[in-house]
Amino acid sequence: MSDDRKISERYRELGTEAPPRHIDEAILAASRRAADVHPAPLVAPTGRRRWYFPLAAAAVIVLAVAVTVHVERDRPDPESAVLAQAPQVAAEARKEEKAAQDAAVAQRRAKPFSAPPLESQNQAMRESAPVAGVRAPEAARSDRALGKISEPAEPPEKWLERIAALRKEGKHEEADKALEEFRKRYPDHKIPESARKK
Amino acid sequence: MLAYRDGDAGAFETLYERHRARLFRFVLRSVKERGMAEELFQDVWMRVIEARSRYAPKARFTTWLYSIAHNRLIDHWRRKGLSLVDLENVEIEGNSPNPERQAEARQSLQRFARALEALPPAQREAFLLHEEAGMSVAEIAQATGAGEEAAKSRLRYALAKLKAAVDE
């Protein structure tokens, strides 16, 4: 008998102890509890099939994200609907302003030496002349929709040039009236010598 | 173990039945008190249950199981030192009804037990893994985290000392 076998046999003689039954039961109960927390799948994945489940889960997630992004992109933006309409509205407003400007010019040419009453003149100016800071309602609304700053129809410099032209032509009464209107609207604006009262 | 990892409780019962006695003796021969051996034994299996989700078949289940036991014993040895179960009162089953023969057998066995107890812990562990778990030198090295040469020499020295006790 080899030495190793003798040693093994002598070792076996020390006893064949086993764990007590209550320890066996405690361990087996713990193993069953742990298995209940994570029950076995209906079909235990083995070999290559083990990779199908995480791959399928990843594919579902990617597909869900892609569909969500696509739907979000295609959804019509409420703001873009307003913006789409704004250029059209603004174009119509500009047409109205131009028409008012042309009417004002035509009126001045038609009656060069008349001095219409102040009230009617003011009314005519308000109705015809594009006044800085006052715009057609539709244009103003479109500008507000677009978030733009409103621009004056006739810049103050142009207005002063017109007053100076009236003085040059000797139409001092008209020039005085226009100057008075100008000062009401632009009280702090500097008046050049050429436009001042004579 | 893979089946248990995937939720089959019955698979664990089969594993447990296969390894329970040998692992118990391995732990018992490594510590002094039976109560402590039972506690450590139960603790090892609880760790097996807790680690089931991380189990990967890189080695035999036996190697993995005894590496857990080894680590647990290392912790225990560090705290409490090491000695074997007292065999003074162990009943020795013998074929001879002769009391003298029985006494001789008991003494011979006690010599062997003392020789086993006297082994350095690493050599004793190598021997017990070889005997109880049926491990090869390579598996002993893997379970204990030692190199193969170290495992081989530990087992060889252990066997040499125990042989001397047997031959006495």
Description:
The complex is a heterodimer of chains A (198) and B (168). The termini of chain A are far apart. Chain A has helices at 3-13, 21-37, 52-74, 78-110, 118-128, 137-146, 156-168, 172-185. Chain A has 8 helices and no strands. Chain A is mainly α and 198 residues long. The longest helix of chain A has 33 residues, at 78-110. The model of chain A is unreliable at 128-137 and 139-151 (pLDDT under 50). Helix content of chain B is 72%, strand content 0%. Chain B has helices at 2-5, 9-28, 34-50, 61-80, 99-118, 121-132, 137-144, 148-167. Mean pLDDT of chain B is 85; it is low at 83-94.
Give a brief rundown of this model.
By secondary structure, chain A is mainly alpha-helical.
Topology:
The complex is a heterodimer of chains A (198) and B (168).
Chain A: H1 3-13, H2 21-37, H3 52-74, H4 78-110, H5 118-128, H6 137-146, H7 156-168, H8 172-185
Chain B: H1 2-5, H2 9-28, H3 34-50, H4 61-80, H5 99-118, H6 121-132, H7 137-144, H8 148-167
Give me some keywords for this one.
heterodimer; A: 198 residues; mainly alpha; rod-shaped; B: 168 residues
Inertia-based shape of chain A: rod-shaped
Q: Bin the helical content of chain A.
A: 55-70%
Summarize model confidence as the mean pLDDT of chain A.
72
Give the low-pLDDT segments of chain B: 83-94
What fraction strand of chain B? under 5%
* Relative strand content of chain A: under 5%
**Largest interface chains and counts:** A-B, 32 and 37 residues
Number of helical regions of chain A? 8
